[in-house]
Amino acid sequence: MYKKFSIKTLSIVFSVLLALVILTEIVNKAKGTNTLRDVLFSINEEVNTLKIYPRMLNGKEILLEKSGNNWLVKYEGKSYNADSTQINNLINQFAELKPLRYAGKTNEQQKKYELTDSLCSKVILLDRNGKELAALRVGRFSFLQNRRMRQQNPYMQQPQGTMITYVRLENEKDIFAVEGFLSMSVNQEANNFRNRKLLLLNRKKIKEIRFEYPADSSFVLAENNGVWQINGSPADSASVAGYLYDISNVTGTNFSKESMVNATHRLKISTSDNKTYEIDAAFADSSKVLLTSTQNKGTVFEEKIDDNFKKLFKSKTDFLKKE
Question: What pTM value is reported for the model?
């Protein structure tokens, strides 16, 4: 009797719960709140162009356009070499957008999550024919702390959780929280998308470096049968090794609007695979210098002398053996 009663009771409870679930689904659909998707949008074609309208620039357009295997940044009528790795990573962020949760659609929620016209950043992705692949509004960045882990370890110094950005499609009102810091990736100045490379090479392949300076201060640092020499005389191997390490990956700091006129210093680097890289320098004033690189043609950097100039342009005495 008790067993029959228990089965009957459980059946009734289950039926009531099932009815509540179905009713909740119907109500949520009517309110438009059950709209979580597996993916926000799909990109099946190659992205060739990104139009970005960062909030911080008040709607001004930054155009990222693919040119061969490289990317260009176009802004206010000028074109610059772009950081291709950064842009490809940005495209991958868009391609992998998966909503974590639905956040609403009302006008108040648009303001709360910074997705109104004046508060959001906008991004449009296009293919090589100019066809629009996706148009997205990018809003507020937030951090969802994992409360469960905090409760398990209240003395945890570093909060554990998920970085999220609130987004919505341009032609829809539904707001979604997606994982990542997409907001910070797009809400940037045009210069932040530019290529800052001065030198990037394999130091093990460097065979000769010519330091071309004013007057008679020029010299050649070259490898001969595994031994580094200065104008034919032995150099300090530790000093050379440290220098080669320092120049194998050099990035510029500040972009200049000026053009390089007459270089006063030049660095010519030759490698074992018959490639040559050049860095030119000219003094802008007593404390600043202009730098250009054949690895980033058309880009001029203006920096303090104590930055990359002193790292790159060494004197002969820096490589002499210490007695």
Answer: 0.81
